[in-house]
Structures are given as structure tokens and as C-alpha cells.
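A reminder from the course coordinator: this example appears on the midterm review sheet, so study it carefully.

Given structure:
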């Protein structure tokens, strides 16, 4: 009787041995996965320094945690806005006019009122400000609507344009600056000589009146238009064309022959 010997069958894929394949996989790095990892030492040092700096900063600038400690007048909320003070007396008008003139007019007419030769006419001892052709009515119209074209001032022609200030300045501001220029740079003495007894101050209500009378005007004034306006003082009273001319005395009676 013959003996049967079990001979192992060769692996059909012997060239791709399982052990060898698993060995290749084990040599690869492990796949990343979620989980707890130790914090790097350098990061702990950084966080520690930040916490230390923050504590020192808060200790030095905590302000005792008072909400008003670092408040300034610019950051405090005012209960009510301060109302603009409107000048009413001659002195108050003149003082306010000086500030308005410096901020708005001095760049052209200069701080001394002499203007710029050939460009901007002088206001000092000008016949339009305090001379024989001056009147509050004409001055108010110039500031409200501007002036265009040639203008004869003290024998010299100025052919520049003055902008209108009616939209930028309020009535009391225009009144103030006119009151100021009528009393500066020798204009007060000139006004007394040409229009004796006339008030130097121009009140805001007068500017309001002129603004209303010229509300429909959009063009700047010209010299010819201004001269066609009758001369009136700040109270609306007519001014003699000669300025200081007094009423003529009646002729003396002739002696009887």
C-alpha cells in the first residue's frame, strides 16, 4: 500500500508575497489624525511673555478704572451747543467785524486796508467806504451780491471781481464787518468830514432789510448800478449827494435904494 504525501501547493501569487507587501506599508509614516498633542515649548514661552506684558500694561495704565479719568473737553459731550452771540452794540459790532475781516477779507484787501495795486482796491480812505459816494445801502449790496467790472477808487481803475458773501455770512456778520471798515484806516475821520452826523455802526436789521429788497437778484453789481442807487444812511434817511453840503442860506435882502 502506497503512502500519500501532502505536498504544499505553491502560492498562485508567490511573486507578491503578503509579508513583503505589509513590510512596505509599515515603512511608511503614519497618517495624521486628530487628538491631543503636546504644546511646543517655544509657544508656551511666547504666551507666558504676552501674559506678563499684558499684566504690567494694565497695572500701569488702569486709571483706577474710572470712566472720566482721561476725558478732555473735546471728548466730553456738551449738554447743549453754545449759541452764537449776536453783537448789538457799536463796540461789539466793531470787534466782531475785525475778526470777520481778518478771516475773510484781509487776503485780498490786506490787514492794513490798502489792497493790492492793480488787483484789489483799497478800503482805507476809499470814497466807496467813507467818501462822497459811500452809503451803508451800497456797501450792503456789494457784500450781499458781489461786484463785477471796472471800479474807480481814488482815481485808479480796478477791473477785478469781488465774490458775493450773502450766502456765507449772516446779516449780523455783514453788519459787523461794515461797521469795522467804516471806522478803520482813517475812514472814521473821512466819514465825519463827508457825512457829518452819520452813525458809524450798521445794525443787522438794516442788512436784513437790504437782503429782502434784493432777494431776487443773482448778478453782481456794477459801478454804474451802484451810483444809480440813492445815498441813504444806516437809518434809511437820504444823504445829500455832496455828502457834507449844508442847506444853502437864503439870500440876504437887498438894501433899498
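Designed residues:
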Amino acid at each position: 500500500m502506497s503512502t500519500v504525501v501532502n505536498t504544499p501547493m505553491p502560492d498562485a501569487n508567490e511573486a507578491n508575497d503578503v509579508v513583503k507587501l505589509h513590510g512596505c506599508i509599515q515603512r511608511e509614516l503614519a497618517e495624521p489624525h486628530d487628538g491631543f498633542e503636546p504644546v511646543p515649548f517655544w509657544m508656551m514661552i511666547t504666551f507666558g511673555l504676552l501674559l506678563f506684558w499684558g499684566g504690567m500694561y494694565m497695572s500701569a495704565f488702569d486709571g483706577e478704572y474710572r470712566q472720566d479719568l482721561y476725558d478732555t473737553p473735546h471728548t466730553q459731550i456738551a449738554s447743549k451747543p453754545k449759541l452764537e452771540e449776536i453783537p448789538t452794540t457799536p463796540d461789539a459790532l466793531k470787534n466782531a467785524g475785525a475778526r470777520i475781516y481778518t478771516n475773510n477779507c484781509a487776503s485780498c484787501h490786506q490787514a492794513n486796508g490798502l489792497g493790492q495795486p492793480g488787483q484789489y482796491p483799497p478800503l482805507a480812505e476809499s470814497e466807496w467806504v467813507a467818501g462822497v459816494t459811500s452809503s451803508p445801502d451800497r456797501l450792503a449790496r456789494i457784500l450781499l451780491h458781489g461786484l463785477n467790472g471796472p471800479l474807480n477808487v481814488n482815481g485808479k481803475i480796478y477791473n477785478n471781481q469781488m465774490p458775493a458773501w450773502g450766502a456765507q455770512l449772516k446779516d449780523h456778520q455783514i453788519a459787523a464787518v461794515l461797521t469795522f471798515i467804516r471806522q478803520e484806516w482813517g475812514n472814521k475821520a473821512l466819514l465825519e468830514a463827508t457825512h457829518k452826523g452819520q452813525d458809524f455802526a450798521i445794525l443787522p436789521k438794516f442788512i436784513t432789510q437790504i437782503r429782502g429788497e434784493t432777494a431776487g437778484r443773482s448778478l453782481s453789481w456794477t459801478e454804474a448800478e451802484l451810483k444809480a442807487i440813492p445815498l441813504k444812511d444806516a437809518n434809511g434817511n437820504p444823504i445829500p449827494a455832496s455828502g457834507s453840503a449844508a442847506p444853502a442860506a437864503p439870500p440876504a435882502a437887498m438894501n433899498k435904494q
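Strands lie at 151-153, 156-158. The longest strand covers residues 151-153.
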